[in-house]
User: Fold this.
Amino acid sequence: MMRSVKSLVKRWKTAGTGVAVLLILRALVPAPVWPQELPETQLEEEIAKQGKIFQGRGAEVPSGYVTNRGLSDYADLLPTGFCDALGRLGNSDRWLDIGAGAAQAILDYYAPAGNTAPAEKCALSVSKARAVAMSIEDRRTDKWRKQAANVGNDRIRYLAGKSLRHYSLEELGKFQIITDVFGGFTYTADLSRFVDKVLNLLEVRGEFYTLAPGVHLEGGDKLGTWYLTELENAAGRPEKVCSWLKKATCVKVTCESKNDWKRPTELIKIEKVCSDVSVPRMKLLEFVAGYPPDRRFQLEP
Ligand SMILES: C[S@@+](CC[C@H](N)C(=O)[O-])C[C@H]1O[C@@H](n2cnc3c(N)ncnc32)[C@H](O)[C@@H]1O
Assistant:
């Protein structure tokens, strides 16, 4: 029942119907009673729908599924300090962008000297880190192929065909900076395993920069929010994404709450401060495919 209501609302939201409708619907629909476990077949169905969204091409790509944000967009969407951190990287350092789409941000980073327009909000140094773009579907453009040929495949790489969890740590190596802009952190059905993998891929003192749209904010919520990602503790009470992340070991988590954005969004920076990382496990209770999907997780006792 709840899943069909959520799917219906999702269709309305996608069609651009406003907050007022959501508020009315919320008043009419009784408070959800979430199942303890998401039935396997429902999850498979939703994951299959999600796969179709990822694989869409041309006119099938919904306008809300944006895959070509540039470095200036990353500067706007990621926590303060991202551009400075990127600018400090040296030649032998490594940057991984998870959920890179067309990898425009990496193209901007490697744009020929003098071509400052694409990265105007991110002042960068001359030395450049090696950059790895990761996307489930291959969205490489001719521009990518040309630039990769110019700068060399050892400087920029594009990995496609599978999600983060299917790569081994040995295959990927370690990174000084990992970014995720509407990538795996927003789309994964296994949030705790995703974060655990990211932290294991970071060098100690390395940093993960991401954002969480449509979540309960550390700095307080806005009335009438439709949450995209909801977390709850083992007793079933709401848990904020930042308070959950702060329970992980060997990390320093900083959150910037964006209460005035269209969707209340938490900008998140996680610094790995020692090697023995462990992330409190979350189990999936609800997943409705979309761009982004609606997800609900519960902390395991
Ligand atoms: C909406 S696009 C965002 C692309 C880019 N970051 C941008 O802002 O333009 C989502 C991207 O995340 C990728 N993605 C989603 N889940 C992922 C996962 N678990 N591992 C790797 N990539 C993932 C998709 O394949 C796609 O490249």
Summary: DSSP finds eleven helices and eleven strands in the chain. The chain has a mean pLDDT of 88. The pocket of S-adenosylmethionine is lined by residues 54, 65-69, 98-101, 134-137, 163-164, 181-184, 187-188 (CB under 6 Å). The first strand starts at residue 94 and ends at 98.
